[in-house]
Amino acid sequence: MSRVRGWCPGALRPMESGDGWITRIRPHGGRLSPVQTEEIARAARDHGNGLIDLTGRANLQIRGVTPDSHAPLIEALRALGLIDADIGAEQRRNIIVTPFADPETDGLAAKLEAALAASALPLPSKFGFAVDTGPAPVLQDIPADIRLERGADGGLILRADGCAYGTRYHDATEALALAEWFLAQGGAPEGRGRMAGLIARGVSPPDAVLSPAPALTPPVPGDVPQGILLSVEFGQLKAETLADLAALGPLRVTPWRMLLIEGAVSVPALPGLIAEPGDPRLRLRACTGAPGCRHAHAPTRALARQLAPHLPEGRVLHVSGCAKGCGWPRAADLTFTATPEGFDLIRGGCASDIPQLRGLPPARLPEVL
Ligand code: SF4
């Protein structure tokens, strides 16, 4: 089994971190049955350190896996239908499905998944698809290279990320043809590259003239037509909490580090879950930090919780263990980036942007806020 650093992990190809191997699970169609959820929770306890991350690509990650526990973990996940035929198939099956999917959307996602599994396209590891064909697009701010969406006329369109317009969509062969076009245009020299980068170089797919429907704002925790959306503090759950959720109904995994419990009308208060849209923890972002990440210069999440009462109303605070900014790879109102000399403050930028203040000790951060 290979271990690869600095690369998008999968289940078959885990990534090493400060607390062991990270093993990523890609739920089919973004759904987990109660049995799958319960068994993932059990596997995280038995073969990992009992912590499960929700990722920005609507995946789950079991943390703390070891060289000895990885093989039995894969067997447990294989029995749940969550393991692909090989690493290539796992890498290609990089699909985010809107959690507000209707049966038509579920069918479109399943056909795209099957077409990708049957293909041998050498797509870059981060190259992905979004199936965003619910009542209105909700995934336009979520990274994806090829988007299947509702057009402004209500019909289905296929759109290259970065391109304002798409083409009429009929079946999955068209999505694969767009991926082939990306490769043929030189979108992935040396196996790396993204669609938006190719489009930014002035290349456009032929016949792209159809506008997507206007996007909705990202959802907040609370009631939705399909059930109840719950946010997860810092996107990390304990296995016990996941097992408790399994008893409440099937889950839909979202790219906003929220879980949709299908058909639920009420949920009990569970540790680390956020059910209220006004909860101030929704304005905190923090990566794994020390000691879970070997690149971190300081702990992050406990510090973010301590700083929450000092955070001005309506502002988003990001505490990052290093300049990579995994916990929020975009601008925040206030970002503290840990460095070997202390914390840098960046206003209105990303963790790697030029700071306004440098080398702050943790004790000074409340006053700076
Ligand atoms: S941002 Fe956080 S999780 Fe990402 S590499 Fe840096 S310390 Fe690790």
Q: How are the SSEs placed, and which strands pair?
A:
Elements: E1 15-17, E2 20-25, E3 31-32, H1 34-47, E4 51-54, E5 60-65, H2 70-79, H3 87-92, E6 95-97, H4 103-118, E7 129-132, E8 146-150, E9 156-160, E10 167-168, H5 172-184, H6 195-200, E11 222-224, E12 227-232, E13 236-238, H7 239-246, E14 251-253, E15 258-262, E16 273-274, E17 284-286, H8 301-307, E18 317-320, E19 332-339, E20 342-349, E21 357-360, H9 365-368
Parallel strand pairs: 6-7, 7-8, 17-18, 18-19
Antiparallel strand pairs: 1-2, 2-5, 3-14, 4-5, 4-13, 8-9, 9-10, 11-12, 12-15, 12-16, 14-15, 19-20, 20-21
Structure summary:
This protein has 369 residues and is of the alpha+beta class. It has nine helices and 21 strands. Helix 1 (34-47) runs antiparallel to helix 2 (70-79), helix 1 (34-47) packs antiparallel against helix 7 and helix 4 (103-118) crosses helix 5 (172-184).
Largest sheet: 6 strands, antiparallel
Oligomer: single chain
Radius of gyration: 20 Å
CA-based shape = globular
The low-pLDDT segments are 1-6
Number of separate helices: 9
Number of strands: 21
Return the CATH architecture of the largest domain.
Alpha-Beta Complex
The CATH top-level class label of the largest domain: Alpha Beta
Order of helices and strands: EEEHEEHHEHEEEEHHEEEHEEEEHEEEEH
Task: Calculate the terminal CA-CA distance, rounded to whole Å.
Answer: 46 Å
Beta percentage is 15-25%
CATH superfamily of the largest domain: Sulfite Reductase Hemoprotein,Domain 2
Bound molecules: iron/sulfur cluster
As for the CATH topology of the largest domain, it is Sulfite Reductase Hemoprotein, domain 2
Protein name: Precorrin-3B synthase
Domain Nitrite/Sulfite reductase ferredoxin-like: 14-79
Organism: Paracoccus saliphilus
Keywords: 4Fe-4S, Heme, Iron, Iron-sulfur, Metal-binding, Oxidoreductase, Plasmid
